[in-house]
Each structure stands twice: as structure tokens, then as C-alpha cells.
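TL;DR need C-alpha cells for one chain.
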Amino acid sequence: MPGLATASLLRARGHEVTLWVTGRDTETKSMQTWDGEIVRVSAEGFPTRFSLKGLRAAWKIWKASSSCRRTMRKNPPDVLLAMGSFASVGPIIAARRLQVPYVIHEANVLPGRAVLLFSRWAAAVACSFEETSYYMPGRNVQVTGMPLRKELDPSARRALDDLPDRGRFTVLVMGGSSGAHALNEVATEALGEVARKGHSIQVIHLSGAQDEEWVRERYADAGIPCLVRAFENRVSAIYQATDLALCRAGASTCAELSLFGVPSLLVPYPYAANDHQTANARALEKAGAADVVAEKDLSAPWLVDYLTESLRNPKRLARMSAALKARLPGSATERLADLVETCAATAPEDVTRAKADA
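>> reply
TL;DR here they are.
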């Protein structure tokens, strides 16, 4: 989605843009609105240890880079924007061989292996968090933020017509696109206890498909007005209705919370690669923009105390909201598109010659 958002803006600026994708299901759904050129790339993640699987992955990367080079040579681009995953490796290797400048975007605080490896030759490294630069000394690191879908617009007020009571303090619970069972368990128990103590609250809970029914039943038993969905597309309206969020700390979630200024208690997914969600969460915490608790330390009694204190201290939540909005004012998509254009403008003469030869 960040790559697609940037591609759409670059095309709107009059550039010729081609998407290079792996063709996975998640990409296919995201690209339904894209009517431009698409190139399919074979890609596979590289294991951390030497193994037969690693040899197979290396062979596939070599084949992918060769295929990308043949395709890229027919119409050499002025610049390549790589969004940092293993799917970027083939196109990056091809770009290097053809002396095409490239920009890498890193969404998380901790750079992934592909970003660390190829950043040394990149024209620029764009990142969502300022802290990322600490892990890549000597690189041309630019803090652009995380590009988001253009429909995520805080200035356009959207109401949730099916929200039970718009005047109540509203807690948002979400664990990602598939939900998070551990958060669902603790949140429903704690919120029920908060309501029994007489606090006026309501809940928006994105539970995931497996937990949707029993989550809704728990809130009904506790007498809490709620909007429970397995998944919800009305993201802007949900953020605008939220006073406090309980959620994971993926890069997109952190960017969306910042865009809408939603105070949050972040519970990083403990099994994320290199524990990168904890690094994301701590960066927001350091800025005074969020609170953080490890999943192993999250319990219903602890969460009851936290929620009760938050209800009593709205000024603190307001300060968190202000700190979020101050992180990266303006459009991350615009900043990343500007950087791509700048790097294309400084492309070496060899690229121009390659385009003329093609």
C-alpha cells in the first residue's frame, strides 16, 4: 500500500510508472485500483542460516535478478523505488547492474536485511522513523514518513452511523488485519470491569473473524455499547471516533495513529521479526506520543488500572495526541515522491545512454 500510494502520486505528477510485484494475494487485492503497467517478479525470503532452503532461495534470487535485468534493459527507468522487502532484491540487483539509481524505503525502526545490504549503494534511504538512521551510519537517510492510502484523510470528517453513543469515551481495540486473540481476551475482560465500576465507555473492536462472535457477546453481557467487526474498511471514521486505542505497533498502524493523532497503548506483537514492533512502539513512547506494554506484562487488572487512569486524565491523552501530530506534519507520500524525483534528476549519464541504446 505505501508503494502503491507513492506510485499513484508520481503518475499524477505526469511520470510513467510501472509496478513490480510478486503477485501474492495481498498485493492483488491492493492493486485493484491500479490500471497502469505491472511486472511480475518471482521472489522468496532468504533464511537466516545456511540450509538447502537457503540455496534454493539464492537460486531463485539469481533467476529473479536475471529476469528483472532483461525486462529493465528494454526500457531502463530513471529511478527505482524499492519498498524494502525481499521482493525488492531482484529489481535492485538489476538496477545496480544497469546503473539505475534506486531509493529504498524502510517502514520500521529496525531496517530489514535487504535494506541493510543494499542501502550502501542506494541514492537515498527513506524511512518512517528518525531512529532508523542510527542503524545505517554513512548512508543518505531521509525521514519521509510512511505513505498511506489517500482515503485516510483526517480533514474529511466521517461519522460512524452505527456507533451506539457518540458522546461516550470510545476505546478502539484492534490487533491487525487478522485480529489478535491475546488482546481480545484481555481487553474484553478489562473493559467489562471498567464498565462495572461505573465508567461510561463504549468500544470499537476489530476482532478478526474467529473471535468476532464471542467478543460481541462479552460486551453485551457487560452492558457495554459496542461496534464489533471482524474487519472494517471505514478506517478514517473509526480513528476520528476514537479517544484511546489498544493495538499492535506495526509501521502502518503507527503511521495511521500519528496521522489522526489517536493516543494509544501499544502492545507489540512479540513474535515479529527482530522484535521490530517493540522498536516502533518505543520510538513513539520516547516522543511522548504513546504508551507501551509488553504482551507478557499485559493483564486484565493492569489494563483496568491503566484505562481508569486514562479516563481521569484527559489532558495527558491530549498531550499524546499533539505529540503524534507533531512527528511528521504534512504528507509522507509527497515527501517520498519528492525524494524519488530528486534521485532521478541526479541519475548518472550511463542511464541516459542505456535508455537511448534501448
